[in-house]
Amino acid sequence: MTRVLVVTAVAAERDAVCAVAGSCAAVTLPGGQELRRAAGLPVALDVLAAGVGPAAAAAGTATALTAAALAGQPYDLVVSAGIGGGFSPGPGSGAPLGSVVVADAIVAADLGAETPDGFVPVTELGFGTVAHRPDPALVRTVAAAAGAAAGTVVTVSTVTGSAARAAELAERHPGVLAEAMEGFGVAEAAAAHGVPVLEIRAVSNAVGPRDRAAWRIGDALTALTGAFRTLPEALTAPAGPAPEPPPRSASLTRGDSHVPRRAP
Ligand SMILES: O=C(O)c1cccc(C(=O)CC[C@H]2O[C@@H](n3cnc4c(=O)[nH]cnc43)[C@H](O)[C@@H]2O)c1
């Protein structure tokens, strides 16, 4: 059976994912974090609330992946999941409140250096990675099943709080649909273990001027549950034909990690 690790930031997101299962039993990981193991699904689904931000997400993901590998039950797929901010470049476009986004690129938007000429990603300084690209066929299948849009999801350590910053991110990342705080950390840990990764976000708020009262967290959590109801079947259905990939901007392809394996 396909084994899937889902990593959320907070317990409310974990519980929204667990809601697809009849029951979710607690399993304690080395170090004390608690994993929830969903029962009664056609895939084995473990859900971990690892904390807010890319560092907590990477640490929790790596711990769960290592524990599973040492137990002789490695995961086939890791999914970063939760609520997120949606970009709306114009009426009828982007990711509106309550919609779901599946990342076709998981991009670290603030991993780099400020220079007099603006932001420079670490890859242009000669280091590391700023983007992971999930398997396009898997993204297509999962997004179609969930009724989700596929596009770039950026990972930030600081939630965007102004229209100027939202516009800057949208300009630097053409095709960006959503912003969250964990995807890149989860993807780094998954890549270190050679396991494919996905990111699924339900939009709770618009990216832009901070207005916490306008966040629709309940609606987003409901949408997240809806997306995960479709995931087991999407992961067990045969893959469809692959269309020609669209051209990508240079900033996204530099330092990419490709994850070609399809979850079995
Ligand atoms: O207060 C609650 O009930 C509650 C329930 C579920 C989740 C939360 C969070 O605050 C989760 C924080 C989490 O959400 C992501 N997020 C959401 N919107 C944005 C955004 O505009 N920019 C960046 N991240 C966003 C993020 O991944 C956080 O970890 C509260």
Question: Would you write up a description of this structure?
Answer:
This protein has 264 residues and is an alpha/beta fold. The chain has a single domain, classed as Rossmann fold. The chain contains seven helices and 13 strands. A five-stranded mixed barrel has the order 5-11-10-6-12, surrounded by four helices. A two-stranded antiparallel ribbon has the order 7-8. α4 links the parallel β10 (149-155) and β11 (176-180). The termini are close together. Bound molecules: ligand LNDFFVEH. Residues 9-10, 12-13, 52, 82-85, 156, 159-160, 179-182, 204-205, 207, 217 line the site of the ligand O=C(O)c1cccc(C(=O)CC[C@H]2O[C@@H](n3cnc4c(=O)[nH]cnc43)[C@H](O)[C@@H]2O)c1. GO terms for molecular function: adenosylhomocysteine nucleosidase activity; methylthioadenosine nucleosidase activity. One of its GO terms (biological process) is L-methionine salvage from S-adenosylmethionine.
Going by helix content, strand content and strand pairing, the class is alpha/beta
User: What's the total count of β strands?
Assistant: 13
**Oligomer state of the chains in this structure:** single chain
Strand order within the widest beta sheet = 5-11-10-6-12
Number of helices: 7
